[in-house]
Amino acid sequence: MANKELEQMLERVHKDIDIFDFDGKNVPRIILSDRQFDNMMLKIQGKPISVDTNLNILQDGLGHVFVEITLDFSHGDIHNKFLIYANDTLNFFEALADTTMFALSPPDHSQVNQDKVFMVQLPKPERAVNALDIIKTGLQTNHQNLKS
């Protein structure tokens, strides 16, 4: 990946992610704006929902690993893509592989305000584990390049 391409990818990265304690488990969370979260909930509230989730791993062979998480909701015409720079967020993907679920919430989520969290369970847990393996392999390339 040329420097310009890398810079463009880094500009697209969704930085609002973290890990939070949900019933004693470390769950990765993608933080949405209040408006984005409320609009999503208005469209799906009261409906049985499934979320098709894909983890697309993009790497350049030099140790830069990005993961594009795509979400397609079965109702509400909701399609989201979040680009995450795995080099800085390995713990996010480790927690995802461990719990096989993640949360969507606005920034002001708290344990008291549990109704402001939308949990997504991965339908095929092995995909998160496989993705973590691919990410770690890609990151090892970066570590080896730094030693050279």
Helix content: 25-40%
Taking the alpha carbons of the first and last residues, their distance comes to 18 Å
Inertia-based shape = globular
Q: How much of the sequence is in beta strands?
A: 25-35%
What does this structure look like?
It is a single chain. A hairpin with a 5-residue loop joins strand 4 and strand 5 (79-85). The protein has a 4-stranded mixed sheet, with helices on one face. A 3-stranded antiparallel sheet has the order 3-4-5. The protein has helices at 3-12, 34-44, 90-99, 125-147; strands spanning 17-22, 25-31, 51-59, 65-73, 79-85, 101-105, 118-121. Helix 3 (90-99) runs antiparallel to helix 4 (125-147). The model has no long low-confidence stretch (mean pLDDT 88). It is built from 4 helices and 7 strands; from the N terminus they run H-E-E-H-E-E-E-H-E-E-H.
Q: Would you kindly provide a brief summary of this structure?
A:
This protein is an alpha+beta fold and 148 residues long.
Give descriptors for this structure:
148 residues; globular; 36% helix; 3-stranded antiparallel beta sheet; 4-stranded mixed beta sheet
